[in-house]
Write a structure and sequence with these properties.
With 243 residues, the protein is an alpha+beta fold. Helices cover 44% and strands 22% of the residues. Strands 1, 2, 3, 4, 5, 6, 7 and 8 form an eight-stranded mixed sheet that branches. Helix 1 packs across helix 3.
């Protein structure tokens, strides 16, 4: 799938100091799909494609578990509220380039498994195929074979929007791209475009998808690559933190 993001379009009214980043763990899986659903209920087309049913929640849980445990190119990052028992405020799913052939093969197997599993049939499967196939084709056309970081999902629960959660999740991925000197890419829903622009993303194309949903395809230029020693130290730090 391509980027599906639901975040407030305005800058944070006041950053919440209790919101902190942490890596997603297997224990977070049941809480992720409810956050996603609450974040995206502002778009009627999303309810048509991803209705909130027990089967749909099971589909999300299985997809998130498979991604977390088996795809080495995925980084699942969450924001939690430390003042509320580490409640899940939002999360992001970033893809980063594979570091070796083994990671490439593992990521390929996960994608093959996703295709075999397909969509939850409680949603409009025809629309899902049309929308996400078109988005993936646009991504391949824009990025070609260039290495890049790809923001696949970013969602923040409405209760925590405009409190800095999306900025934390965006900073994390953009820092990875900057450390390695590569571009970052996403496909934005209308309300999220201003946020991404503040992080250096620029729209390169737009498309009206099936059902009238508008996507803006956005690219963040590569920054100057940091010195290799600095990159190694950052990567070591992320591994130690479990990012």
């Amino acid at each position: 799938m391509a980027t599906i993001a639901s975040i407030a379009s305005n800058p944070p009214s006041k950053p919440n100091p209790n919101l902190v980043l942490a890596p997603v763990t297997i224990d977070d899986i049941p809480a992720m799909s409810p956050v996603w659903t609450e974040a995206f209920n502002i778009y009627p087309i999303m309810e048509r494609m991803f209705p909130w049913t027990p089967a749909q929640q099971a589909w999300w849980d299985a997809a998130n578990t498979r991604t977390l445990l088996h795809d080495p190119t995925v980084r699942l990052i969450k924001v939690v509220d430390t003042a509320n028992h580490d409640k899940l405020a939002g999360y992001a799913q970033w893809y980063v380039p594979a570091r070796n052939k083994e990671e490439e093969e593992k990521a390929k197997k996960v994608k093959e498994e996703e295709k075999k599993t397909g969509w939850c049939t409680d949603g409009d499967v025809e629309m899902l195929n049309n929308v996400f196939n078109n988005i993936e084709e646009e991504k391949e056309k824009i990025m070609e074979d260039r290495p890049h970081c790809f923001l696949h999902i970013l969602c923040v629960h409405p209760t925590y929007q405009r409190q800095g959660a999306s900025s934390l999740l965006l900073h994390w991925g953009c820092d990875i791209a900057d450390a390695t000197g590569i571009e970052a890419y996403l496909a934005a829903a209308p309300k999220a475009v201003p946020v991404y622009e503040r992080f250096g993303f620029k729209g390169v194309n737009t498309a009206v998808q099936s059902g009238g949903f508008l996507h803006t395809f956005m690219l963040r230029p590569a920054k100057g690559k940091k010195e290799s020693k600095e990159c190694e130290e950052e990567e070591k730090g992320r591994e130690q933190r479990g990012d």
